[in-house]
Amino acid sequence: MIGKIRKVLLTLALVFCLFPTSAGIAIAGDQNYYGNEIPESSANPSVLPYLSDGDIWLVDTDGISPRRITHSGRAWAPSISPDGTRLAFWALPDVVSSALQNHPELWIINLEIHSPSSRPGVGWNPAPPVYGGAAPQQHLVATGPGPVSPPSWSPDGRQLAWIAGDHLVVSDLSGETRTLTTIEVQGIARPEVVWSPDGRHLICSQVRDGARGLWSIETASGTQRLLATLSPDGPVAYAFSPEVTLAFHTGLTRDRGQSRDMGQTPWSAPTAAHTALGDASSPESVPPDHRSATLHLLRDFNQTEETVIVPDAVGLPEIVTQLAWSSDSSQLALVGSDGGVYVARTDTWVCRRLPGIAAFIDRVRWIEDGSIACWGRDETAPDQMLFVVSPISEEVTRLSPPTTPLAIPDLGQIPAGSRCAAVPYDWYRYQGAWDSGAMAHSNCGPACVAMAIQYARNNLWVPISTIRDYIGGSSWTYPSHLQSALDYWGVPNQRLYSMQDIHDAVASRGSIVLVHLWMYWFTPGSDYLSSYSDPLQHYGRYYSFDQSHWVILSGFSQDGSWAICHDPNVWDSNGLYWYAGGIPKGKDRHYQYTQLVNSIADYGYQAIEVYAAVNPTDTPTLAPTSTATPTPTATPTSTAAPTATHTPPLPTPTTPDPYPTPATPTPTTVPSGNAYINGSVVLQGRPSPPHSRWIVALDVTLLQGGSSVATVLTLTDDFGNFCIGPFGSGTYDVRVKNFNTLSNLKQNVLLVPGGNPVFMGELRVGDASNDNVVDIDDFAILKEHFATTGAAADFNQDGIVDIDDFGWLKENFGQAGDIIQSFAPSWSVDSSIGQDFD
Prior knowledge:
This protein is mainly beta. It contains nine helices and 44 strands. It has a six-stranded antiparallel β-sheet with strand order 29-36-30-31-32-35, sandwiched between helices. Strands 16, 17, 18, 19 and 20 form a five-stranded antiparallel β-sheet that branches. Strands 39-38-41-42-44 form a five-stranded mixed β-sheet, with no helix packed on it. Strand 19 and strand 20 form a beta hairpin. Helix 3 (about 445-455) packs across helix 4 (about 465-470). The chain is elongated, with a radius of gyration of 29 Å.
């Protein structure tokens, strides 16, 4: 209750600090500037945005010089309204103390109103001159947990839609923001939504019950309808023409246009690397007579009765990341995964690549004069590049100014072949794994913590979802969150505040470093959005996500030009994230050192050093081997020199043995087998672990059909962890109880050969009589032993029965075991300024 009151007060404080200090400021829902009436006058519809140094700049195709429109340094995904009068974009707040610091903010700038504005007390104050010679009107639409997709304007310019985590959110400009429906976009490389021309439907790609499809969602009711089943691996691109034709590209199909079945099983596209290497044996290779890129057109979208498949378009890219229709619906622009821009005429479906664009293009848009605006990047420039190209003359004009090439700070020579992670086990983890839970879409930070725990605590395996439960929330995570989790699991760590500190930690001390990156800095690699590529293609960004992201820096290449990272952005059942042979692309991924430096700097050097495990070979390896995770058969080879040997820093951090010898382990009727339980519990009233008061005796019982099949007495370590077994493989209910706690029960626990992580939750104290109920009998025992050292009523195990123990008994009074444990994290939000995502 106190937490809720504090949250309300904080929200009110934020609201008051955002109230205008002058008449020229609009807040969310201000009808003066954002009603339902579209202004009669119009800004230049040919104005185009691009990103530079974390801010948005506008340039006019008629020749007006670029003007800076934001000054936060934390803006991205700019989107101009259809009439060119408004700019929507995402930004992160700068206020470190804000409870909403992890939540992206959706802003609108009115390009027609030119009056100074500010956000008093919030620290985000664009300074003139900007577009139009004065600070345009700003409007905060909504804020909530990420990650978020680019904002999408409705055709009439009165609504915005976006994907926030696993929710589809719609906001109208009068101030109403609502969650339209829940969607499932985990593992999709580029989640986004598009509006139907009448504004009555939104289209997005989802994964449901393991199958990927293209879905239509009614904007009034949220009712969903499956339009087509899609390839499980490649990216899907979709766009409406002005004539209400929905085009979508699905990759390669099994049959060369012989079937009109929208649910046919597609093949994965062979990569350019396989072609160049002459590799005909890769599992994704398809016979040439069956290989065909397929474009689907739904002419009658509302009924989806008339379907035209265009399988034989000459020159159509095999993998397409975006589609854009011309204003007269006669041409379709396509962006290939190779960064090229293609144009196809709808009368002949002859598709050609436009030459002369010196950048890797990832986004296009047609403009009024029939030209195509193209946004992209190259390896030498830190900022977004904006071009306009004529599909007729093929003339290319660059609108964004040249920028200074990336430069390496003067840190001295990087040691040749510098590698850390000198441990005898594989500690790579990824956020799309089976143990990541419902918050997998934002679990890059918890996944990095899971890796760090394994690395520093002798392969101790903790479910990523358990780490997310401890951190809380559903959005991006910051250093304070990750350090809190590392401390909780007893991982020695420290904050780093400069590139020199990061460099020394990795190259000199043999540590790993959790680093917060802005992935926009990294240019795509040769296997960008390519399924099951060759393991040798482990350089550059392999996915389209380009926002806030945590990775682990573990070393440098031999020549010092590449940073070697464990990137957790990998998803099961999606070939885009896997090499051929079942190897995750995020493992030992190589990113350009120059780009890494700038990406870390863009987040103000948010980095956490984690020391290497002490005597890692002294502890038996009991990491789980889940059948849900592909088993690597090879390790990506790099040009790095052999692993260097490093000496841990002094003083050497001490790490307790996570698996102490159990006290009198006397199992009864233990099924024979080779499955172990790597269990953990949380204990009420104890100091932060590691601590001796976390070492307690547990009765662990395995049940099947309500009957006990095994009972084990064991001890936890000073983190609340325990390891028991072996048991036979199978499904069990697991019960744990301490002599003065209530019992917890976790149902339907599947045990497979190897280690099985089982988090048994928080054991509630107060059962002094050990009858599995906290009642008047326990109060009598506490009263009898008050001010003594009676162990039965010393619930927090501090050596004395006192008022603290009475407090715990009072809190749990009337409760009884077995307490069923269910850990399914739910999506939740904070609200501010009268706007929320729920």
